[in-house]
Cytochrome c biogenesis protein CcmG, thiol:disulfide interchange protein DsbE (Nitrosospira briensis), 174 residues
Amino acid sequence: MMRFLLPLAAFIVLVGFLLVGLNLNPRQVPSPLIGKPAPDFQLEQLHESEKTLTSKENLGKVWLLNVWASWCVSCRQEHPVLVELAKSGIVPVYGLNYKDERDLALQWLRQFGDPYTVSVRDPEGRTGIDFGVYGVPETYVIDKNGVIRYKQIGPVTVEALETKILPLVKELQG
């Protein structure tokens, strides 16, 4: 009897793990960086390659870091939302151009609009790795102390802005 119950129990446990896995939302993968300082970086600016931007330059203000690329289909989906957000002036949006060609990225911004206060280049993806980027687009809310407070995996939508990102930004700015 025991030799039949053991495989049955193992099967039930396996089915349980499968059901839990199927119910997970991949857009809600917790980031181990939430609540920790944003990784230090010093990267070349996209528009002015002789200039750089460091993570320390934004200390004292709440800001968004949006990871994007000209080859990213989902980035086109979120881009109008970011353009409108930038026009509102509520929070500065910085871009991290991820594993992209400089000329293609500049052309993309000319074509679709440039919502970024500054966009920096990460052609090898090293800074993206430091931030734990799974894929583009991803957006981080970073507080006045340089601590990552939220990570949006996938495109920023109007709903995500209204329900999560902007309420958090206003709380952090307060």
